[in-house]
Amino acid sequence: MTAHRPARRRLELDERRDELLAAARAEFQARSYDEVSLDQVAGRAGASKALLYHYFSSKRALYTATVKQAAAELLACTEPDPRWAPDERLRRGLEAYLDYAERAGTGYVALLRGGVGVDKQVFEIVERTREKIVARALATMGLAKPPPALHVALRGWLGLVEAASLEYLRHRKISRDELVALMVRTAVAAVDGA
Hints:
This protein is mostly helical.
């Protein structure tokens, strides 16, 4: 029975940490990094500021943890089904990406526009996520050794996807279907050009 207790205690600690992260994500999605205070996060979580510091050494550490969690969710929700044809993977991946961007709202915008400025850890998380997305695209093409130009073209295309998503979220000048179709056409053009 003693061996069972530590596992339960650990689960409770993990659950509390997850609650704090959820509260932080909600705050960071509603406002920019600079506008969020640890008091607001603690209040939303129904916890003390001291408890936040027990799990996260600073506001920056809390934000970095939320970025890691968000990056993992983005990769999970855009994971293509290998049974789909490549064009279907691309279209569904873009739709899932836009779903994620719309759900994250201000947090997505703040992250791509700088979040906490030039924070090295946040930048590395975002870069690793971008590289995983490009690696997925290359894997879909089934090339044993893709040419460097193709990697560069896909990174450029991903930059277009991010900028177009931000423009769409901000202004909604075109429909979502038009945006997805545009991003598919630009992906094809980028691959053909490489």
